[in-house]
Amino acid sequence: MTEIAPAADELDNRQRIMHVLRHPGVRRLQLAFLGSTLGDWAYATAIVVWAYEDGGAKAVGAYQAVRFITMAVVAPAGGVVADRMSRRTFMIVSDLLRAALVTGAGLIVVTDGPAPAVYALAILAAVAGSPFRAAEAGLLTELVDSPSELTTANALSTNVENVMLFAGPALAGVIIGASGVEEVFWLNAATFIWSTALLLGVRVRATDGDAGQPGPVDEADQAEAGDAGATGFWAELTSGFGLIGRDRDLRSVALLAGSVGFAWGAMNVFLVLLATDVLDSGPKALGYLNSVLGVATVAGGLLILGRLSGSRLGQDLVLGVVVGWGVPLLAVAAFPTTAIAIAAIVVIGLCEPLGSLGIDTIPQRLTPSAMVSRVYAGIDSCMVGSMALGALLAPVLVHGVGLRDALALVGAIPLVLGVALRRRMRDLDRRLAAPVELALLRAIPAFAELPAPALERLAHAADRLQVPPGESVVVEGGRSDRFYVIVSGEVEVTRRGRTLRTEGPGEFFGEIGLLRNVVRTATVTASTACELLVVEQADFLDAVSHMGDGSNALDDIIARRLYA
Known about the structure:
There is one protein chain. With 564 residues, this protein is α+β, with helices and mostly antiparallel strands. It has three domains: 8-213, Up-down Bundle (Growth Hormone, Chain: A), CATH 1.20.1250.20; 218-433, MFS general substrate transporter like domains (Growth Hormone, Chain: A), CATH 1.20.1250; 437-562, Jelly Rolls, CATH 2.60.120.10. It is built from 22 helices and eight strands. The chain has helices at 13-21, 24-84, 87-110, 115-129, 132-143, 147-178, 181-200, 219-225, 228-231, 233-246, 248-278, 283-305, 313-334, 338-366, 372-401, 403-420, 422-432, 437-442, 452-461, 511-516, 537-544, 551-562, and strands at residues 463-467, 472-474, 482-488, 491-495, 498-503, 508-509, 523-526, 530-536. The strands form two sheets. Strands 1-8-3-6 form a four-stranded antiparallel sheet. The protein has a four-stranded antiparallel sheet with strand order 2-7-4-5, with no helix packed on it. Helix 2 (24-84) crosses helix 4 (115-129), helix 10 (233-246) packs across helix 15 and helix 11 (248-278) packs antiparallel against helix 12. It starts with 12 loop residues before the first helix and ends with a helix.
């Protein structure tokens, strides 16, 4: 009988965080993300300062618009590539390419070279980095061992990003004031090298050649994922959006992410106008509002770490969208005072990490491993594209209807959408709830190397079967179409009338015919009343395809059983 060990899901919040950080691969991934994000935000500030000195506010606006639009367009293609190769390798190539591009831009700035070349290299660096987070999302699912670890790791990443969002520009300001813009370029290049060095030490369950390489998925998703040679790159490119469109929960997440992105983009414009028209202090007030937003966002990130055990990803996402965006913007529209404006910005900052955690984690939990990066990139594109749209339309709205009505219109979008999808997200949380079958499957030693999302999907796919005493579950020579795990009772395994063994709770059978693609090699009969978990062939093969070298444990079991 297999004994069920305590899972990471049962730990308290502090223990969850320490448990995740003790994982060498996850720790290296977090540190790599910390370094490159710090450099990226510092660089983003430096390039804006340089662009303003080069061409004023118009140059800054044009650069930002092109950057966001390009990232939104290119990210899905990068997600396809990340899903088709080792995700770790993809991230390393992205780091090294961006280091070279940023270094090149810095050399042009130092030598007073042509400004268009600096803009071009900056855009190319953004293009090279746009699928990085999608690849990281896929790689993370290969490293963690449970859904709670995945949520905790994403919460840590959210905190890292929030702190770096605040620290990066601050560091850039210090460096620019002390030396010059180009020094920030060198810093960013160095952080990419830092990230590369850490990623080189990340080890996933599969061999390096297969790390991140997806296995087969079910027939519908296989048709979407496709073979590049058979279906063409366009099918690959649109497959992530196809899955988002077919899955109501993923579609809902994409819509909510888009509403947040639109509000973020418009907020960049509104902050300037709030500083000028409401606080009546201009640039000084703008800096103050951005600081308040940054501090509140960091505090919000710390708050989500304190409630990991009670996290409801779907309902928290709705809360972050409605309370974090809709209500504050409508409040400022209704009462445009200094106190309300500051309070609204505090609420936005506190709630933003709550929504981000769901946007990051839900696609990882719902998507087959073979498509995680492209689905993540698809949702990210919805968010970034909406952000660009919000930034472009906000001035038009303000000019057409005034600041207060523009705030009300933008705030109404996340509010109405969040309320409309509230029930959908509640159902999603039930879908994400760990099934009771998960603990039994996790306790099987042969599945120890199975990535957490794949194991969770296997548990969700399992059905229960009651078998009376004396009934044969599988018959020697019969068709191999299912995998079985014993929940309770005992079975007898025979071959050609000879008893081979008896099996009880926690043990399994049916794997030989599925993995070897042969007929049943033995008859299994219920000795007592039994309850079994039943997994269909496609779901079982999809799960074990992600085991990499861990499939050796199943091979050993098969060898022992075949020659018993």
